[in-house]
Design brief:
The protein is an alpha/beta fold. The chain contains 29 helices and 19 strands. The structure holds 1,4-dihydronicotinamide adenine dinucleotide. 1,4-dihydronicotinamide adenine dinucleotide (NAI) binds next to helix 13, helix 16 and strand 15.
Length: 708
């Protein structure tokens, strides 16, 4: 018996209600409570059928993810104990009807599938999302789902981890009926109907399972696909292996094989890293000193200045959240171009079936394009996204300060410029903040919020909250050059360029990092973003360069030749009309010539050196940022990199990755690079300190972001 599960009767029907708010997770006590209900049904002749339902807003939404960490830390046994409970449900002598509303994910769906029938509210969703945590279903999901939904659907659901809605669940056979009215009443009526009628256990329902020979091509295709789509990841392939067992093995053996694969995944670095990212996305919302008592200002409408690449994407993010947007440009042509780009983006969403015309019309009706600041007194938040240049930014902020009402927030999307200097152009530095979006701004999940020296807690809190409203994850950074993300990206891309100048080919550098797991190689990323962006920034900050310290030479020279990357048809690579890249022999020959002229010794460079130089350059700079207090915690850096820079979630982010490798090893490698390449590789003091003490970045806490 357990407080988390309640038992009531409606005549001959026993109702088992799971009541473990907020989402009825399968915490300790819940499976046991369900089992006790089944025992009651088995032993009480007056019970003719059982209904299992969730209290509150959902059925069982899934496992309690905290439990996984306890298992891998050795605090608990692997056997979460769900399988015996599900076997008990399945073997119950009375039919068990699972009544699903909200979400039945992971262990929730596995529990539902151990019942004899499933009814669902029309709004319910079901899924096996374990792969998103580097896991596979571990309580029969890979064995029961193919029996109910068929092999193809089970493969898709377990490999991609995407949920399906009730209507599709009905169509595929996972759900037996959709209940239109009250779910409990409907489930009880269903239970009455089938009470006393013969019923079947999911494990015995083999009619949808193809023969091993018929299954083989489907499984082989799924493997091929998963290898491409989920590069380097073990869980999607493990899920396929487990599902194959449903076709080739008796049920009990299939379950045992699934259990072994599940445990392998659970103890893998990949899963631990993905669970770190899962919790990290929540952790970054916590800002010491900014809490529940800190007011957040209402943001009912937004003004965006600049309708270029970023301004357009930022506008879409707000329109999608139904926040009215005033979009300002300098002239009619730029404004029309900006609005046309927004329209085109929405037209694509309609084409892909993501939005209806009516939804697009509603969103577009919230957009007010303008060429002046006349209505900026109406907005609660203004976001500037004009060209990257301090003089222009200051001019715009001076104007915003004059037109916006007192208390309105003035945010800049600058990638590198000082928030404090921008704020100095206003009479309200407490209302000025960085809101650094990533391109494409309506797609990328990261929002880097940058606090200036004077930014008020209310303004910080409002921006952190606002991120959630527009479907983003905010990471708070302090005001240093490049903040967290771009400050680290500098040394990372610097090393990529050095490697090419030392003899590696452009493709070898990009391929090495791509194969390692980055979404894109560093040089191709430069071509995509525009090499001129970095070039302009380097010119702006050239006065800070230390004489005698090596600087990359090739990229600026490519820019001088007008090779800005994709937008000009060439950069590190050459591009066709459709922006497909091909290696560019001209660029390769030029870079080689420049490097030799500059006296850079040429050599063959191994793939592991390419990866170590680029990744440890990230880590070493990250350590400085952490030590100097420009990031609150190591996890903030990790989340910024996973959500904003295509760092693989299964490696947990740069700081977590360094922890998994061991900081002693990372430190020694950095020292080696320092000996060979000089002071740019001086180890960050924090890296040296933690390595010497055998500690980790994850365990390091300062808990305050510096403001300048
Ligand atoms: P962009 O060149 O595509 O757009 C800038 C737009 O601002 C142009 O359409 C221009 O006409 C307009 N503009 C200039 N002065 C203006 C004024 N006084 N009033 C209204 N509009 C004005 O540039 P992009 O790429 O959108 O960059 C904008 C800002 O976002 C820069 O600060 C950049 O560093 C930052 N950023 C860019 C990212 C990227 O990937 N492109 C990523 C993150 C930040």
């Amino acid at each position: 018996m357990s407080d988390l599960v309640k038992y009531t009767r409606d005549g001959e029907i026993l109702i088992v209600t799971i009541d473990n708010p907020p989402v009825n997770a399968l915490s300790p006590g819940v499976p046991q409570g369900i089992a006790a209900g089944i025992d009651q049904a088995d032993s009480d002749d007056s019970v003719k059928a059982v209904v299992v339902i969730g209290a509150g807003r959902t059925f069982i939404a899934g496992a309690d993810i905290n439990e996984f960490g306890k298992i891998t830390a050795g605090e608990k046994s692997h056997d979460i104990g769900l399988n015996p409970v599900l076997e008990k449900i399945e073997k119950c002598s009375k039919p068990v009807v699972m009544a699903i509303h909200g979400t039945a994910f992971g262990g929730g769906l596995e529990t539902a599938m151990s019942g004899h029938y499933r009814v669902a509210a029309a709004s319910a969703q079901i899924g096996q999302p374990e792969v998103k945590l580097g896991l596979i279903p571990g309580a029969g999901g890979t064995q029961r789902l193919p029996r109910l939904a068929g092999l193809a659907k089970a493969l898709e659901m377990c490999v991609d981890g995407a949920p399906i809605k009730a209507a599709e669940a009905l169509e595929t056979g996972v759900v037996d009926e959709i209940i239109m009215g009250d779910l409990l009443e409907g489930a009880i009526a269903w239970a009455r109907d089938i009470a006393g009628v013969d019923f079947r256990r999911t494990r015995d329902r083999n009619e949808k399972l193809p023969s091993p020979a018929d299954a083989a091509p489907l499984i082989a295709a799924a493997r091929d696909n998963a290898r491409k789509k989920y590069r380097n990841m073990m869980a999607p392939l493990a899920a396929i292996d487990a599902i194959e067992g449903a076709v080739t093995l008796p049920f009990e053996d299939g379950l045992a094989a699934e259990q072994k694969l599940f445990v392998d995944c659970l103890f893998s670095a990949q899963s631990k890293s993905m669970i770190h990212v899962f919790f990290g996305e929540r952790e970054v919302a916590k800002v010491p000193g900014v809490g529940k008592d800190t007011p957040s200002l209402p943001v009912r409408s937004v003004g965006v200045v600049g309708a270029g690449t970023m301004g357009g994407g930022i506008a879409i993010s707000f329109l999608n959240a139904r926040v009215p947007v005033l979009l300002k440009e300098v002239d009619r042509a730029a404004l029309d171009r900006g609005v046309a780009a927004i329209r085109k983006n929405y037209a694509n969403s309609v084409k892909r079936g993501r939005l209806t015309e009516a939804q697009v019309d509603e969103r577009m009706s919230l957009l007010s394009p303008t060429l002046d600041y006349n209505r900026f007194n109406e907005v609660d938040l203004a976001i500037e996204a004009v060209f990257e240049g301090m003089d222009l930014k200051k001019k715009v902020f001076g104007q915003l300060d004059r037109v916006c009402r007192p208390g309105a927030i003035l945010a800049t999307n600058t990638s590198t410029l000082s928030i404090d200097e921008i704020a100095s152009a206003t009479s309200r530095p407490e209302s000025v903040i960085g809101a650094h979006f990533f391109s494409p701004a309506n797609v990328m999940k990261l929002l880097e919020v940058v606090r200036g020296a004077a930014t008020s807690k209310e303004v910080i809190n409002t921006c952190m909250q606002l991120a959630k409203k527009i479907g983003k994850v905010a990471v708070l950074a302090g005001n240093c050059r490049g903040f967290i993300g771009n400050r680290m990206f500098g040394p990372y891309r610097r090393e990529a360029q050095f490697l090419v100048e030392e003899g590696a080919s452009v493709e070898a550098v990009d391929q090495a990092l791509y194969r390692w797991g980055m979404a894109m190689g560093p040089l191709a990323t430069g071509d995509l973003a525009g090499l001129d962006v970095g070039w302009r920034i380097r010119k702006e900050f050239a006065h800070l360069d230390k004489p005698g310290v090596r600087q990359p030479i090739a990229e600026d020279r490519l820019c001088e030749m007008g090779r800005f990357g994709q937008k000009t048809g060439s950069g590190w690579y050459r591009y066709d009309e459709a922006r497909n890249a091909t290696p560019d022999e001209t660029a390769a020959a030029l870079v080689r010539e420049w490097a030799i002229d500059a006296g850079i010794p040429q050599r063959e460079i191994a793939e592991d050196e390419i990866v170590d130089r680029c990744v440890y350059a990230l880590v070493n700079e990250g350590a400085r940022i952490l030590e100097e207090g420009f990031a609150l915690r190591a996890v903030d850096i990790d989340i910024a990199y996973v959500l904003g820079y295509g760092f693989p979630a299964y490696r947990g982010g740069p700081m977590w990755f360094a922890d998994t490798v061991g900081l002693k090893h990372v430190y020694e490698r950095v020292l080696e690079f320092e000996q060979r390449h000089g002071e740019l590789w001086a180890p960050a003091p924090l890296l040296a300190e933690l390595a010497a003490e055998g500690k980790t970045f994850a365990g390091f806490a300062r808990g305050k972001t510096k403001t300048a």
